[in-house]
Amino acid sequence: MTDAPAVKVAATNRRARHEYHLEKPAEAGLVLTGSEVKSLRAGQAHLHEAFVAVTSGGLELRNAHIAPYTHGGYSNHEPTRPRRLLLHRDEMRRLAKGVEQKGFTLVPLEIYFKSGRAKLSLALGKGKKLHDKRATVAERDEKRRLDRVMKGGKSGDD
User: Fold this and answer.
1) CA distances (Å), 35 to each of 96, 111, 135, 158, in order?
2) Nearest-angstrom CA–CA distance, 57 and 67
3) 3-class SS at 124?
């Protein structure tokens, strides 16, 4: 029997699926300090204003807020410092080429621990227009209503 690696989610970007059409997901490693890892394990991170930037040295996670570790002392980290992402060169090129296309950006989806290592799930995203967001909400509501009817519950139109 094969054991799947244990995954513990530390932070999610819940707005990403609402704000962007997501394509081509990827998984990247994160270069973190010790106090950042301890803070992440405690669930003290936010990704709601975070983005991934393409730099000459590779990819960086920016504006991700990892709260200072409570027992960190004088050697604590800066909460919103840029963090380097670890990817294979070919995958980095593929994502950078996608960002060069008009309207695409790299959106961080979640930070999690996989087999004890901090990972970042990210995807190429294109911003949704307001009517796209409304259509997505309408589809979700219609699906819920149909599921309710199929179960034998109220339709909501009664």
Assistant:
1) 30, 16, 42, 55
2) 25
3) strand
CA–CA dist 87, 120 (Å, integer): 10
Q: What pLDDT, on the 0 to 100 scale, is given for residue 119? A: 92
Q: How far apart are CA 82 and CA 102, in angstroms?
A: 24
The string of DSSP letters for 8-43 reads EEEEE-TTHHHHEEEEEEEEEEE---HHHHHHHHTT
Q: Which pLDDT score, from 0 to 100, does residue 71 have?
A: 82
CATH of domain 7-128: 2.40.280.10
Read off the pLDDT of residues 107-132 as tens digits, 9 standing for 90 and up.
899 999 998 899 999 998 888 777 77
> What is the CB neighbour count within 10 angstroms for residue 21?
16
pLDDT band at 93 (very low <50, low <70, confident <90, very high): confident
pLDDT at 73 over 80: no
Q: How far apart are CA 149 and CA 144, in angstroms?
A: 9
Query: How high is the mean pLDDT of the chain?
Result: 85
**Residue ranges of the domains in the chain?**
7-128
